[in-house]
Design a protein that fits this description.
8-stranded antiparallel sheet, single chain, 3 domains, alpha+beta
């Protein structure tokens, strides 16, 4: 039994899985000690067929029980686990156990089919190449044989049989024939031959019995109705009057040919007789007259031998014979083997048996070919199972920069930085709702492959730099795990502090944004108010001039509009001036030390709590939310340590041996261009010097009192100078008392 070792990665305790033997023991630990208990198939960078084998219940998610079952099955098939330790896609046949004998047989069949030079090992590529090779050889194991793989003398018969029944295809996608089809052909052919033998007993209406039966069925609605009417009249004689047209209906239809035709069609074909006899000579010349007359001449007279009348019993007998003929013909038409029987009156039983033998021989290959599928499973498990366990039971590759985790989709280059960790997201709204609860800055990036493949979206954690530089719509490039380059566009930003300095300065950034928005709002509102006031004053003064008789009284409102606006502006200007004067007075009363102390105190009061909160957020950054948003079920946190932060987001250094030239190359070009144009823009050198001297003078004037006080206290100036320069409220430092004369005895 292999001993388990637990190692710490980024604050989480994970079991070490260096070999398959250790993995076999590790799958028995409680699920609570696994890093993950479930994960989706999407977003994993491994063989999709391997994931399909692993997902035994087909719900597109891999669970603990499925991983355990896979490890247990692979352990029973392999007695030498060296290939599994190395993740090799080549399976040594000598590494198989006795229980894996069917897999060995399948591997040998594949190697013989491919004519491989080495019969001791088989690769994943060979296993997958064997499928089309075996199918091309007609070895499918499903009992469905294509005519091309039958002996030449049997191919025409097989094609005819396949044309009789719905098409079936083998694993190679070829239409073929199977034993069930041959057996059904036997049964259908036997039934059809018996049906043909019964033709003479059914076709009793002469040589043209089928045509005769069709003509009998054609007139059956009229004759059936007539004989029913005869029965009605026999039972109730007064009903005969009701079967005639009322005079009012005939009179109302006069002049309307369509109405008259409809009225004639509602009449019986002849006057009903209680005896149930149709006299052909008494047939009305209604819509059915010509058809019935032709039927009498060509059919009824030939069948009954009576050209004058047709009785009810004779009609029933004639109709029964016609229905029997038509039913026999319908059954013949419905037979799927009719064409084959007509084209091949005789079919050799030995030929059918030979086709069945070929199908049975192909069906015997089913265990071997099914074992090929299991062989592919085993090779894939040897290649990927240990790798998958190191990304499911444990996740060390998330923390190791030189290893690629299965969840990683690629590398993002954006804004001069390299983001090495990205996770596939299929539902950005749900993913963002979860990651927004954490403390990690996350980018959602739309990746558009250049080869026309469908675009997809990834979530990228940001661990260094400044989050304020990342905005929606910013573009970059994305390199997937295969090194292919794609276009990338930021679609959403979950903004959180990325560094301690950003956390400390974020309140000032927010205050600046708030003040800017308020000032812009006030400016916009002021402009609207000013425009409204001007429009009102203009309307009152110009559009509505005062009446002649009331000039003084009416002029007041118009003048008041302009005057009110001017007065309001004057009051506002005065208020602003007073405020500015108050601020200047208060500032002048402060010393430079007071200003520096106040600014420092304000910075400490604002930045200290923000820095503490940011530090706590940075310590709580957790990559588990990134995976859980993509459908992972995790037991432990994946803490984003400072060391890992520098690996996830970094700005690569300059190439080795590169040298930085600090000279700004724009200035010489700008000076050259200005010299060519003969003009300059902006302030001249003297103007800049004057402004600089003015700024220095103002600053020195603000701090003149403490400077002069210090100078006078140090007796650098005379008492007269201090008295002249310093204000009356500031007294110079008192002079030191004169030294006492030395005492004498």
């Amino acid at each position: 039994m292999a001993s388990l070792i637990y190692r710490r990665y980024g604050g989480s305790l994970q079991v070490d899985l260096p070999s398959f033997d250790v993995l076999e023991e590790a799958v028995r630990i409680p699920e609570t000690q696994w890093i993950a208990t479930a994960c989706p198939l999407e977003g994993l960078n491994c063989d999709s067929r391997f994931l399909t084998f692993l997902d035994t219940d087909g719900n597109a998610r891999i669970r603990v029980a499925e991983v355990r079952a896979a490890v247990e099955w692979a352990a029973k098939q392999l007695k030498d686990r060296k290939g599994a330790d190395e993740g090799s896609p080549v399976l040594e046949l000598g590494a198989l156990t006795e229980e894996a004998r069917p897999l060995r047989s399948a591997a040998e069949t594949i190697l013989r089919t491919l004519k491989a030079p080495d019969m001791a090992r088989i690769s994943l590529d060979q296993v997958r190449a064997s499928d089309p090779a075996l199918r091309a050889a007609g070895q499918n194991g499903d009992g469905i044989v294509s005519p091309a793989h039958l002996p030449e003398q049997l191919r025409p018969l097989a094609v005819d049989l396949m044309a009789c029944f719905p098409e079936v295809k083998n694993r190679a996608g070829e239409a073929g024939i199977d034993p069930a089809m041959v057996q059904r052909f036997r049964e259908e052919r036997t039934a059809l031959l018996a049906h043909l033998d019964a033709r003479g007993a059914v076709f009793t209406l002469g040589d043209a019995s089928l045509d005769t039966a069709k003509r009998i069925r054609e007139v059956a609605p009229w004759l059936d109705a007539y004989f029913v009417q005869c029965r009605l009249v026999a039972a109730q004689p007064e009903a005969a009057a009701s079967l005639r047209l009322p005079a009012g209906r005939v009179e109302g239809a006069l002049g309307d040919v369509a109405a008259l035709g409809k009225a004639a069609g509602d009449l019986p074909i002849a006057p009903p007789e209680p005896a149930g006899v149709l006299e052909w000579s008494r047939i009305h010349r209604g819509p059915a007259y010509e058809t019935l007359e032709a039927f009498r001449r060509d059919v009824a007279t030939q069948v009954t031998g009576d050209a004058r009348r047709l009785t009810d019993p004779a009609w029933r007998e004639m109709l029964a014979k016609a229905d029997a003929v038509l039913a026999w013909q319908a059954k013949l038409d419905a037979s799927p083997v009719r064409k084959v029987v007509e084209a091949r009156p005789t079919v050799e039983a030995t030929d059918l048996a030979a086709i069945e033998s070929a199908c049975a021989a192909d069906l015997l290959l089913k265990p071997t070919l099914d074992a090929i599928v299991e062989l592919e499973r085993l090779v894939l498990y040897q290649r990927w199972l240990l790798v998958f366990a190191n990304n499911f039971i444990s996740m060390p590759n998330i923390y190791l920069p030189r290893r690629l985790a299965l969840v990683e989709k690629g590398t993002l280059i954006l804004g001069g930085r390299k983001y090495t960790l990205s996770v596939l997201t299929t539902n950005r709204a749900a993913h963002a709702a979860l990651t927004a609860q954490g403390t990690t800055c996350v980018l959602y990036v739309q990746v558009a492959p250049k080869d026309g493949a469908p675009s997809y979206e990834v979530a990228v954690p940001v661990t260094r730099g400044r989050s304020t530089d990342l905005v929606v719509g910013k573009r970059g490039i994305f390199y997937d795990v295969d090194g292919k380059e794609h276009d990338a566009t930021v679609t959403q930003v979950i903004r959180q502090p990325v560094s301690l300095w950003e956390a400390m300065t974020m309140p000032f950034t927010r205050m600046g944004a708030f003040i800017t928005s308020k000032v812009e709002g006030l400016a916009t509102a002021g402009e609207k108010t000013f425009d409204t006031t001007l429009e009102k004053g203009y309307t009152q003064a110009v559009v509505a001039p005062p009446a002649a008789g009331a000039a003084p009284a009416a002029a007041a409102p118009a003048t008041g509009g302009i005057a009110g606006m001017v007065a309001a502006g004057s009051i506002a200007a005065a208020a602003l001036g007073s405020s500015f004067a108050f601020i200047v007075t208060q500032v002048k009363s402060l010393t430079l030390i007071d200003l520096i102390s106040a600014a420092t105190l304000i910075a400490i009061v604002v930045m200290a709590p923000a820095g503490l909160l940011g530090w706590l957020k940075l310590r709580r950054r957790n990559l588990a939310l990134l995976l859980e948003g993509s459908g992972w079920a995790l037991n432990d946190r994946l803490m984003l340590t400072p060391a890992l932060s520098s690996l996830v987001t970094r700005r690569p250094r300059l190439p080795k041996g590169a040298r930085v030239d600090r000279m700004d190359m724009v200035r010489p070009e700008l000076a050259r261009q200005q010299e060519e144009d003969g003009e300059t823009e902006g302030l001249s050198g003297w103007a800049r010097l004057g402004i600089a001297l003015l700024v220095i003078f103002v600053l020195l004037w603000q701090v003149r009192i403490p400077i002069l006080t210090a100078m006078c206290g140090a007796r650098w100036l005379s008492e007269d100078t201090c008295a002249v320069v310093l204000p009356s409220s500031v007294e110079p430092a008192p002079a030191a008392p004169p030294a006492a004369a030395p005492a004498t005895k």
